[in-house]
Each structure stands twice: as C-alpha cells, then as structure tokens.
C-alpha cells in the first residue's frame, strides 16, 4: 500500500500549476487556523455557525457566548478574500448578537480591507415548531478609500427545522452599496439547506442572489472535530458574468 503522503503529493503535482498553488494556499490557511483554534479550544466549545456561507440562519448565540469564524476564499482567476469575524451575545441583551468582521480582498494586484460592524436580533423562536425568525444587519467601511462608507445590508433570516437532522434557511433582504462610486440599492434573497449526515458531518448547500446583481451557489461538507471545532470546505460558482468559481476553507470556534 502506498504512503498517503506520497499519494497526496503525486495528486498535487498532477494538477495544473495554478490549481496546485490555490490548493496549497488553502491548505496552509486551514493548518494555521486549526493550530490557533486548537490552542483556544481548551477553554471553548464550538457548534455550527454561518462561517463562509452567505445565507444566514435565524439562530443566535446563547447569552454570554461568542463565536469566531475565519475563512479564506481563492478564486479561479487569482482573486482571494480573507475574513475573520466575531459575534457575541451579552447576558444583558439575551436576544441580540453583536459583532464585527474584517475582510481583506485581493484582485489583479489591487487590495482592499473592510471593517463591518454587524448585529442579529431574534424576533421569534418556537422550538416546539422548529421555527425561528431574526433581523440582521451590517455596515461596511473601507480602510484605503477616500470615501470610507461602503454600504449597508439588512436581512430577515428565517429557519425551519422539520426534523432534528434537517434545517431549511430562507433570507430576504436589502443592500445599499457603492460600486465604483455609483450607489446601488438592490433586493437580496437566499435559500439554504443543512443536513446532518452523521454526528461529525453536516452537508450544506445554498443559492443566493441580488436583483440585477450577483447570482451564485455554494456547497460543501462541514466537519465537526469533536464538540469544539467546525471546519468548512466549500466550492462555489457565480452564475452571472464570467461565471467565476472559488474554493473556500474555514473554521469556527464558539466559547
């Protein structure tokens, strides 16, 4: 039987040079992220979270709990995004989750960093019916622009859980963005499904878009490493324009 390390090395060498570089960068990001989380996990307990997925669920952290999400997305044509996000629910505000995300994008030699304060407030929750409804919003600020304000998003996430292993998510929202100096207002929507195939594995798929704007899908497995760490491996594709494809790797920590 061949050594698994040699088999993997042979597989990487067989890929086109660009794909091989993207795979190595994603694996390096996962390794560094898991190393950091392994240290923090001694005092933490992790569950599923939104992570790199665009379609949100209506759940929030329990009072006094926080989560950290980190992911790296590598596009087919050399673009990339790195994101670190943290959200917490304070004991004094048990129905509101507050947080912020920092995102760094690179494309064709240009780069941009954004800070996005965000919130999610639970409006309705009936565990016996498997129904949850929330209001979520975020504001975006660009660090390296003369015009720092970059836009705002509002969203109504709705989650229905007909079975213990199945969750259906529906999003309806509105986005205001500055695109190359032009202000755009668009309605946004998204649908997602999460299925717990096993105790350590959840399969996730989503389809989302904006009125007159981006249309895309993403899907992949979410690996539950014990009860403390979740790891996402996500593939996605834009359904408009050049139909770009991407690979995303990420991890979630809750404490």
UniProtKB/TrEMBL annotation:
InterPro entries reported for this sequence: UCP029691 (IPR016934)
Protein name: Porin family protein
Organism listed in the record: Pseudomonas mandelii
């Amino acid at each position: 039987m061949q050594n698994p390390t040699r088999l993997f090395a042979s597989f990487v060498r067989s890929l086109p040079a660009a794909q091989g570089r993207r795979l190595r960068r994603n694996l390096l990001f996962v390794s560094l992220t898991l190393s950091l989380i392994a240290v923090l996990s001694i005092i933490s307990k992790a569950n599923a979270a939104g992570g790199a997925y665009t379609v949100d669920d209506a759940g929030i952290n329990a009072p006094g709990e926080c989560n950290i999400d980190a992911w790296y997305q590598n596009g087919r044509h050399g673009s990339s995004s790195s994101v670190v996000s943290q959200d917490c629910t304070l004991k004094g505000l048990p129905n509101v989750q507050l947080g912020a995300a920092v995102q760094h994008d690179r494309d064709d030699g240009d780069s941009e960093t954004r800070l996005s304060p965000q919130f999610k407030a639970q409006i309705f929750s009936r565990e016996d019916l498997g129904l949850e409804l929330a209001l979520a919003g975020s504001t975006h600020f660009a660090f390296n622009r003369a015009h720092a304000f970059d836009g705002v998003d509002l969203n109504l996430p709705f989650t229905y859980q007909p079975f213990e292993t199945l969750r259906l998510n529906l999003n309806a929202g509105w986005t205001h963005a500055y695109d190359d100096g032009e202000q755009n207002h668009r309605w946004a929507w998204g649908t997602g499904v999460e299925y717990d195939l096993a105790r350590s594995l959840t399969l996730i798929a989503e389809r989302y878009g904006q009125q007159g704007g981006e249309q895309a899908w993403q899907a992949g497995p979410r690996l539950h490493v014990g009860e403390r760490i979740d790891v996402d491996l996500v593939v996605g594709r834009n359904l408009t324009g050049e139909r770009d494809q991407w690979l995303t790797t990420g991890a979630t920590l809750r404490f």
